[in-house]
Write a sequence for this structure.
């Protein structure tokens, strides 16, 4: 191994270890730990401070330029769904559709649907209020609902844009124009994950004692028509998907241009947000406060995401891209191996530093140079899916969502480790297998 390769390897080990130490033991915010890791990695690999700082700024700004407005719009849309009661209407509608006997499956499905526009942490905090009443009505173990809901939210949050992780990964891989196909592949990849999560939740949950107070019942503030509640979620997805697939048809150019404009993620989410405003009633006097809360939450997430982008940019600038490009070009890597490598890198980063979004950003930055043969939209989409699967495993004590699930879902830390953490591992493995199988048959 060359001196340059040794420097890069040692730099990555030190940087990732530093992130773990800073976030877990020193309680340093992930934003600062990622920036410090970027500087430390750059210095170890031979870059000067004068070279590192511009790269950090460019990496930070470049990523936010592509996803900043989208994340902000998605955050505002999510809080509208929460505050207006639309999210609860979606939940009750799906439960009525599937019935009490399939309540665990339906809660997994609710989680997957809500996880597209709403961050999994806030989504679980909101929807966990359904668990006591559902457990009483269906005589089902509360822990089964906790696992089903948490895994459902986690799945689409990790695999389906416009959440920051897959969005940033797509951007790093040069697939930003193919979001419609990436969304479709993400949804397809989520289906086997849903089945695995449902079966595990149903049978593992009965073995776990929950601390949830079953005397607590969920009170619905208002009723919202299901179609009206679903529209702000489904419209952006349909517009983005249409924009991608209409290019494959023989439709007139004017129609293609209009569909492409409406399917631009910013435009599609803005239209979804306008539909969300239809949920507002005259008595809702706190809309400005809601928007402020949403933008505040989005700002924190964007800062951490941008810092991850900065770290990824420094990694790229250190020469690792050249080394990986040489490996890829000289070894004629099989596409399945590239999928496996992307998954493995993301899994190591996720397990080490806890952030799914950061793991996807950094892993996609590392894998981009050897994924140059992945030029077709479908191939790139499968690579984004594989990286997302790696970034799912495993969620444990260094992941804030682990503690959200534990505390709000009525699980002790020990039970969360042996159930929820193991479930995220199964989810990640399922995504890997699914991405490989899809790559072999399409």
């Amino acid at each position: 191994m060359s001196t340059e390769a040794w420097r890069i390897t040692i730099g990555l080990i030190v940087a990732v270890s530093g992130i773990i130490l800073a976030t877990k033991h020193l309680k340093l915010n992930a934003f600062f730990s990622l920036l410090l890791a970027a500087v430390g990695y750059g210095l170890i690999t031979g870059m000067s401070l004068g070279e590192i700082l511009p790269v950090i700024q460019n990496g930070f700004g470049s990523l936010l330029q592509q996803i900043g407005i989208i994340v902000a719009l998605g955050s505002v849309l999510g809080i509208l769904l929460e505050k207006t009661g639309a999210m609860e209407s979606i939940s009750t509608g799906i439960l009525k559709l599937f019935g009490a006997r399939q309540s665990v499956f339906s809660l997994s499905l609710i989680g997957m649907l809500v996880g597209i526009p709403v961050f999994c942490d806030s989504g679980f905090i909101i929807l966990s209020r359904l668990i006591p009443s559902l457990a009483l009505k269906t005589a089902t173990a509360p822990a089964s609902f906790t696992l089903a809901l948490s895994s459902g939210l986690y799945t689409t949050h990790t695999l389906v844009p416009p959440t920051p992780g897959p969005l940033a990964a797509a951007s790093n891989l040069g697939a930003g124009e193919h979001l419609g196909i990436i969304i479709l592949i993400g949804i397809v990849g989520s289906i086997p994950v849903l089945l695995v999560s449902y079966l595990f939740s149903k049978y593992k949950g009965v073995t776990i004692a929950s601390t949830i107070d079953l005397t607590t019942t969920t009170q619905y503030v208002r009723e919202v028509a299901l179609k009206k509640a679903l529209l702000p979620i489904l419209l952006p997805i349909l517009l983005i998907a249409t924009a991608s697939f209409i290019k494959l048809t023989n439709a007139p150019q004017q129609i293609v241009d209009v569909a492409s404009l409406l399917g631009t993620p910013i435009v599609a989410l803005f239209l979804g947000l306008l539909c969300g405003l239809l949920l507002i009633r005259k008595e809702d006097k706190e809309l400005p406060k809601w928007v402020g809360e949403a933008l505040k939450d989005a700002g924190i997430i964007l800062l951490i995401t941008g810092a991850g982008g900065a770290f990824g940019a420094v990694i790229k600038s250190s020469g690792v891209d050249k080394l990986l490009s040489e490996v890829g070009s000289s070894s004629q890597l099989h596409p399945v191996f590239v999928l496996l490598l992307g998954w493995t890198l993301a899994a190591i980063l996720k397990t080490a530093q806890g952030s799914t979004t950061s793991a996807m950003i950094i892993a996609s930055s590392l894998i981009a140079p050897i994924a140059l043969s992945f030029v077709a939209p479908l191939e790139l989409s499968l690579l984004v899916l594989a990286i997302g699967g790696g970034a799912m495993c495993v969620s444990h004590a260094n992941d804030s969502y682990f503690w959200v699930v534990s505390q709000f879902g009525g699980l002790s830390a020990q039970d969360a480790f042996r159930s929820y953490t193991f479930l995220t591992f199964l989810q990640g493995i399922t995504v890997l297998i699914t991405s490989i199988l899809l790559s072999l048959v399409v």
Notes: Confidence is low (pLDDT under 50) at residues 216-220. Residues 76 and 292 are 9 Å apart (CA to CA). The radius of gyration is 21 Å. DSSP finds 19 helices and no strands in the chain.
